[in-house]
Structure formats: C-alpha cells, structure tokens
Write a structure and sequence with these properties.
The structure holds two protein chains of two kinds. Chain A is mostly beta strands. Chain A is built from one helix and seven strands, in the order E-E-E-E-E-E-E-H. Chain A has one domain (about 5-95). Chain A is about 5% helix and about 50% strand. Chain A has a four-stranded antiparallel sheet, with no helix packed on it. The termini of chain A are close together. Chain B is mainly beta. Chain B has one domain (about 1-135). Helices cover about 15% and strands about 40% of the residues of chain B. In chain B, strands 6-7-8 form a three-stranded mixed sheet, with no helix packed on it. In chain B, strands 1-2 form a two-stranded antiparallel sheet. In chain B, strand 6 and strand 7 (about 115-120) form a beta hairpin. The chains are: A mainly beta, B mainly beta. Chains A and B meet through strand 2, strand 3, strand 4, strand 5 and strand 6 of A and helix 1, strand 2, strand 4, strand 5 and strand 6 of B. Strand 6 of chain A pairs antiparallel with strand 6 of chain B, so a sheet runs across the interface.
C-alpha cells in the first residue's frame, strides 16, 4: 500500500474508543526516518485502526526536535478519569511485518 | 520500568513547561491566539509503579486558564534522527460528557507545542493544516 504524505490511509476509518471504563490495549509503532518524516500504525486491542505517513516540507527553523506526548489535552474542561497501566515506549531494531508491508 | 516511569513523571510538568516556553509562545490549539503560552498543566498521579491516573487539570495560558492539560512528555529527539519506537499501554477511560467537537487527544507527536500528528483524538477536522493533522477517532 502506498500512502500519500500527510494523509491517513483511506482504509482506516473512524474508530470507536470505549470511554465507559472498559480497558483496551493501545499500541503504536513508529518509524522515524530522519528529515522530520515518520510513519506510524495505531492498534487497539491488536486491531489496526489508523495508519499515517508524515513528511515535513522542510525541517523547522526554530524547532528541530520531536517530543512524544501522552496524556490529555483539551480546549474544553470536562470531567474524566483515564487509568493507564504498563505504559512503555521501547526503542526497537525491527517493527512488525505488517508495518513494513504497509509502508514499503 | 520503574525507573523510566518515575523519570517520566518527574520530568513531566517541567518538560511541558520548559519545552513550550522555548517555543516562543505558539499555541497550536488556538492558532496563536495567546501571545504567551506557558503550558502549565499537571502530571498524572502514580499510585504504584505501573499505573498512572490522569484527571482534569486546568491549563494556564498567558495568565488565564485555557482548557485542560495533563500529560507526560518523553522521548524528545532530533527530527533528523532515525529510530523505531513502539508505544504500548493498557487504558481505561471514563469520560461521560465528551462531545465530538471537543479536542481530546490522548497521544501526540509534537514539534515543541505544535502537534505534528495527533493519533488518538476526537474528530477535529477543522484543525487540519500543514504540519498539523488530527485524526478522526471517536469515542463511544
């Protein structure tokens, strides 16, 4: 599958995330390719829900770093509780076969 | 695991604050509405070494409150760096009153304060523009 840059896969649709307290497993595979470009796949409970290829027009003049953020940000204030267990970010040598089949 | 999580928790609030202050005050969520964006927020509570609990925390921007922010920041690295990462977590979310018009992002990759791509969030298509892509993940 070939993805246009900065476009999500057309096969990935709107995906429902339970917000009634039902736990789910989140997994995200990233491949940072240098020059500000990266690909990723998001899985929920082992099912792929999103695919994305991001390419910058050019490296930022002022900001030459990426930061992976995890948590809640919203323009509106509302009540919620998010319990996160076993959060990990691991650097790996190789991603899944599905990842390479998607982006090669 | 224990060490890395404690490190993330320790760095969380200061990393958000310091990282955004050096950005020059650009707030991606409001397209520069605030000249000064101090990004104050909160880090999650950690009742044990494997659990983080995120709850609402008002965000202060330019001396006034603006929405909410409660997040951790980690893995800051150069845009020219090549690396492969895998993020995993087990999540339980209780949020009875989220609407589709609320920007509610769980995880994102950002350039300073500017999200390059937010991959778990509510629909917010009007914010799609160069270098800022929001996903259309919905909540049930």
């Amino acid at each position: 599958m070939t993805l246009k840059k900065n476009k999500r896969s057309e096969t990935d649709g709107r995906t429902a995330i339970p917000r009634d307290g039902t736990p789910f497993d989140l997994k995200v595979e990233f491949n940072f390719k240098g020059k500000g470009a990266f690909d990723y796949i998001v899985y929920l409970d082992g099912k792929r829900i999103d695919t994305f290829r991001y390419e910058r027009p050019a490296l930022s003049k002022n900001n030459k770093e990426y930061a992976l953020k995890f948590g809640l940000y919203s323009q509106k204030y509302f009540d919620y509780t998010m319990v996160v267990k076993n959060f990990r970010v691991d650097k790996v040598e190789k991603l899944s076969d599905e990842f390479y089949a998607t982006f090669d | 695991m224990k060490t890395s999580m404690k490190l993330i928790a320790t760095l969380a609030a200061t990393a958000v604050l310091a990282g955004c202050q050096t950005m020059g005050g650009y707030n991606p969520g409001s397209a520069g509405r605030f000249a000064q964006y101090d990004c104050s927020g909160s880090a999650p509570a950690m009742p044990d070494e494997t659990t983080m609990i995120f709850k609402p925390a008002k965000q202060t921007c330019g001396g006034s409150t603006f929405g909410q922010r409660n997040e951790i920041v980690g893995n800051t690295f150069s845009q020219s760096e090549k690396k492969k990462l895998v993020l995993t977590a087990n999540i339980s979310l209780t949020a009875p009153k989220i609407s589709d018009t609320t920007l509610f992002q769980i995880a994102s990759m950002t350039e300073g304060c500017t999200p390059a791509s937010s991959f778990i969030s509510t629909p917010h298509g009007t914010y799609i523009k160069s270098g800022y892509q929001m996903k259309k993940t919905t909540f049930v």
